Amino acid sequence: MKMSFKVYNTLTDRIEKIEPIKDNIFRIYSCGPTVYNVPHIGNFRSFLFFDLIKRYLSFLGYEVTHVMNITDVDDKIILRCNEENHDLKDLTSHYAKMFIDDSKKLGIEIPDHLPYATDHIPEMIDLIKLLIEKKYAYKTNNGSVFFNINSFGDYGKLSKINMNQLESTKRVSDDDYDKKTPQDFALWKAWKFEDGDIFWNSPWGNGRPGWHIECSAMSIKYLGNEFDIHCGGVDLQFPHHENEIAQSICSTGKKFARTWLHCEHLLVNGAKMSKSLGNFYTLGDLFSKGYSAKAIRYLLTSSHYRQKIDLTDKNLKGAEKTVRRLQEFNRRLLNISKGNIGSIKKTESSILDQFTVSMNNDLNVAEGLAVIFDWVRSINRKLDSDQILVNDAANSLALLHKFDSILCFLDKGELEITPEESSLIREREIARKNKNWSRSDEIRELFRKKGIDLIDTPSGTILKNL
Q: What is the CA 27 to chain-centroid distance, rounded?
């Protein structure tokens, strides 16, 4: 029997139990990248949160269907194409691949569906036609189509925005299209000279979809009119998610997403990331500073999703040390178990239950990690005093790897060493203690030829793929 999993639903403004609408399958939609530039580390705060939610639901025994869009047409993309004389598809395909590659480096599981906006223009047009037919949207003289937010009484419910103080949002006001009231948002944008050859034909003339309509069209296509969870960064609550709700409910008459989850911003040295401040980082930038993907992932997922995370060298170094300690713990257990991974018995199950109770409380990762670290310390004490038998080590490994299926702190490459190689590592550690540097270097070089680096730490040797 599954324990109750509770999360903070932005829509209802309370922590509540979530269960799948249908069968044992959670259907999740999350807002993906706009592919016009190299993805920055702030983007991955959100994408790692989506991955954590998905992995934890799988851990609880649910099936998960995850859809995340790729925005491959918008004002910024068109501007970049014009400035650098790029073809739309060439530009967006290049940066979409970079996003996917970086995601894989961080251990993010690629969604079941990764739809591109430009592949779903017909679905968007059909949705807009339906909104016009139902009198929720209107066409302007220049061929644009806008949603009339005054036609939807619940507008603002998600973001708790004061409608009396609502102004035209920057992403809408920059469109420079005619509309009845400043607050109405674009569903279809009529072609402008600056758009060049980037346009599609529609019943209202040549143009392109607005930003918000793509997520409604694609989530409905792949998940249905109603689904379980919609995820995004807190910055998307308004106007993007507010607009998604309005146009989706008005077009289908259904509730759309039952639960809305939003994660907080990533800060860099206490400030919002900005190129002008010189604190704008890509994943490659952090790699060049010597930080590993595992440490970056750990830092970006080890705090509560509704709290800001501060990306600093101090915090990254702390994450690196923590990950290395966990990997060293894994290595010590592997040495004793001779590479075998056992099963979770009564002792391990108790620890797992404590972890689950913490995580079920609005995904309290920090509290869950505290359970893991207390357990690791207790097992390390037994390891230090040679109180761990082969089977005990194998069963502890099963629990450690169960945790890793959610948190992804282990280097799986560590598992591919033979008993002979484990003996060589122990021999090298003895050689170092005896200051036999030539033998120590000789063994290290043997491993380097196999593509493995040996990293010396106060608690032992850690293996890393070169």
A: 16
Cα-Cα end-to-end distance for the chain = 43
Element (H or E) spanning 91, and its range? helix 88-105
The string of pLDDT tens digits covering residues 371-393 is 999 999 999 999 999 999 999 99
Helix (H, G, I), strand (E, B) or coil at 22: strand
Q: Give the pTM.
A: 0.86
pLDDT tens track for 66-105: 999 999 999 999 999 999 999 999 999 999 999 999 999 9
DSSP per-residue string spanning 181-250: STT-EEEEEE--GGGTT--B--TT-SEEE-HHHHHHHHHHHHH-SEEEEEEEEGGGIIIIIHHHHHHHHH
- Compute the chain's Rg from CA coordinates: 26
| Domain boundaries 271-416, CATH class | mainly alpha
- Other Cβ atoms within 10 Å of 297 Cβ, number: 23
Q: What is the location of CATH 3.40.50.620 in the chain?
A: 15-263
C-alpha pair distances (Å), 386 with each of 183, 307, 332, 392? 69, 41, 11, 12
- Take residue 457 and report the two structure tokens written for it: 């730490």
- Alpha helices of 139-180 — where are they, by DSSP H? 170-173
Q: Residue 80 contacts by C-beta under 8 Å, 6 or more apart in sequence?
A: 36, 37, 86, 91
Residues 189-211 have pLDDT tens digits of 999 999 999 999 999 999 999 99
**Type of residue found at 280:** F
Q: What is the CATH number of domain 15-263?
A: 3.40.50.620
